[in-house]
Amino acid sequence: MSSNEDDKGFETRSSCPLCHGDLIIHWQEDDIPYFGAIMYITTRCDCGFRFADTMILTQKDPVHCEMSIDTLEDLNARVIRSTSGTIRVPELGIEVEPGSVSDSYVTNIEGVLIRIRDVVETATKWCKNEPEKHATGNSILSRIDEVLEGSGGISVVLEDPLGNSVIIADKASCKTLSSEEAAELKTGMIVFDVDSSSLEVDTSEDGQSYESV
Predict the structure, then answer these.
(1) What is the rounded CA–CA span in Å between residue 93 and residue 91?
(2) What pTM does this model have?
(3) Which own/partner contact pairs does 20-25 have at CB distance under 8 Å and 24+ positions apart?
(4) What are the pLDDT digits (tens) for 63-83?
(5) Alpha-carbon dihedral angle through residues 71, 77, 83, 84, given to the nearest 10 degrees
(6) Per-residue pLDDT reduced to its tens digit, 31-53
(7) What local confidence, expressed as pLDDT, does residue 33 receive?
């Protein structure tokens, strides 16, 4: 493994998990309010594999954040979502779980809803020959548009077993999850469990977990 340091940034080389070709991983340290020291991690392979994350360099407890969205102003609440964060909009039946190619991002509630809308719109087009699903998709799209216009009436929940995600707003409420609650959440990454001495690879996209001692 080689590195090239440059102003708190460096690169390492690894093997792509898909094509086994040469993979360059970029690491860049930064300091932002609330979190303190963080590390941006980005990598992309010519075969299509990509990965990005924002790693918090301090220990965090598993977190549950929730905020009701009632006005246009609420749409401006800051959202920091790590690759291990799960987003839910209970009123719409929406749940966005982390997968092996999840991206981390810093945005606001409006940005989160726009991301969700894009996915729902694509899924709705795919099921145009299934009237019931197509109608449900269009209903969700209409409701999201209403919220984006200021109608409110929904809540956004953000949970992270690694504590690297948060909703930052006066209205947002955050609490620490119990170890049992955190264990129910997916991480979308490789996690070493020191209690069981096993390596669990969370591949949320296909809904399976693979374990090896």
Answers:
(1) 6
(2) 0.68
(3) 21/45, 21/46, 21/47, 23/49
(4) 999 999 999 999 999 999 887
(5) -80
(6) 766 556 778 888 888 898 888 87
(7) 61
Task: Say how far apart CA 86 and CA 67 lie, in whole Å.
Answer: 14
pLDDT at 84: 83
Two tokens, residue 173: 């409420």
Residue 24: name the closest of 6, 44, 9 by CA.
44
For 89, the token pair is 């909009």
Name residues whose C-beta falls within 8 Å of residue 154's C-beta, 6 or more positions apart in sequence. Answer: 68, 69, 89, 90, 91, 92, 143, 147
Q: Where are the domains of the chain?
A: 1-58, 60-185
Q: Sheet containing 78-81: which strands, arranged edge to edge?
A: 105-108, 78-81, 166-168
Question: By mean pLDDT, which of 14-28, 123-137, 192-206 is the weakest?
Answer: 192-206
Fold assignment, 1-58: N-terminal domain of TfIIb (2.20.25)
Percent of the chain with pLDDT over 90: 47
CA 50 vs. chain centroid, Å, equals 14
CATH-assigned architecture of domain 60-185? Sandwich (2.60)
Reported residue count of the chain is: 213
